[in-house]
Amino acid sequence: MTTIVDVADLTKTYGSGHQALKSVSLAIQTGEILALLGPNGAGKTTLISIICGIVTPTSGRVRVAGHDIQSNFRAARAVVGLVPQEITLEPFETVQNTVRFSRGLFGKPNDPVLIEKVLRSLSLWDKRKAQIKELSGGMKRRVLIAKALSHEPRVLFLDEPTAGVDVELRKDMWAVVEGLRAQGVTIILTTHYIEEAEAIADRVGIISKGEILLVEDKATLMARMGRKEMIIELQSPIDKVPEALGAYALTRASAGEALTYTYDTQKGRTGITRLLSDISAAGLVVRDVQTRQNSLEEIFVDLVKDDT
């Protein structure tokens, strides 16, 4: 797999003295979906704004499809589509004309067939003659994506693409993103919704205080950093954990009707077999056993907390 966006030692310090990015390096692969997670003020929007040529970096280098964003701005920008957080659309213009105009801004000739294809892929074709002011918030976000795709970019940045939309529409948007990836578009999204990253991302990047804490394959990240919990449901509730089980660091749950055991999935031995044997020896009767793995959200919170 080839690298389509290459960021090296990127820094950004604003006139106020605030350092938004601190020596950020990042390689984004062709055809992948990368989710960039981070709290407010972490530097997510600054990073993608620099890559898209909207903000000038203080130092460092960015290449998009081999084009330097500063020395070869037009070629680099032509490869990139950006869907911003804010919905900034002309309210009295039609959907079709809005998207057609965006294509023209990149010097591309009018292409009715392509515009129709983009609008149909986003379920906007039936709304093509509607004025923007007549659309719902979710439909307006789809128009923003259509605008970003109008000049046929190879890389698409989605800055908080599902902010303010309901759960059902959010899942529809995920399907749209998957469809774009199937067409060969590389997608980078920033999000506050952890489930978004879990649902659609190939890799996850975590940024905090202007620094990339890690970028890793989603499944590998969860396997490497995730812990599993085993919930042991008891036949009868207990007031406290028996002293004989003290070495396992068990916690009572469900008003004493269950015990929770946390273990590392990466260790060769989990101690579960011995634990269950010792529970029986302590006179407790097990009714059921369930396991649960840490979510990406819990991993994210732990990483950002450690960085404070």
Helix content range: 25-40%
If classified by CATH, what would the architecture of the largest domain be?
A: 3-Layer(aba) Sandwich
Largest sheet: 6 strands, mixed
Proportion of β residues?
25-35%
What overall form do the CA principal axes indicate?
elongated
Order of helices and strands: EEEHEEHEHHHEHEHEEHEEEHEH
Number of strands: 14
Textual characterization of the structure:
- With 308 residues, the chain is an alpha/beta fold.
- The chain has two domains: 3-223, Rossmann fold; 227-294, Alpha-Beta Plaits (2-Layer Sandwich), CATH 3.30.70.
- It contains ten helices and 14 strands.
- The strands form three sheets. The protein has a six-stranded mixed sheet with strand order 6-7-8-3-9-10, sandwiched between helices.
- β1 and β2 form a beta hairpin.
- The longest helix has 16 residues, at 167-182.
- The protein starts with a strand and ends with a helix.
- The model has no long low-confidence stretch (mean pLDDT 87).
Annotation keywords:
about 300 residues, alpha/beta, Rossmann fold, Alpha-Beta Plaits, 2 domains, six-stranded mixed β-sheet, four-stranded antiparallel β-sheet
What are the SSEs and their pairings?
Layout (H helix, E strand, L loop, with lengths): L2 E11 L5 E11 L3 E5 L6 H8 L7 E6 L2 E2 L4 H6 L1 E4 L11 H11 L6 H10 L15 H13 L5 E5 L7 H16 L3 E6 L2 H7 L2 E6 L2 E7 H8 L1 E8 L16 E3 L4 E7 L7 H10 L4 E8 L2 H12 L1
Parallel strand pairs: 3-8, 3-9, 6-7, 7-8
Antiparallel strand pairs: 1-2, 1-4, 4-5, 9-10, 11-13, 11-14, 12-13
Helix pairs in contact: 3-5
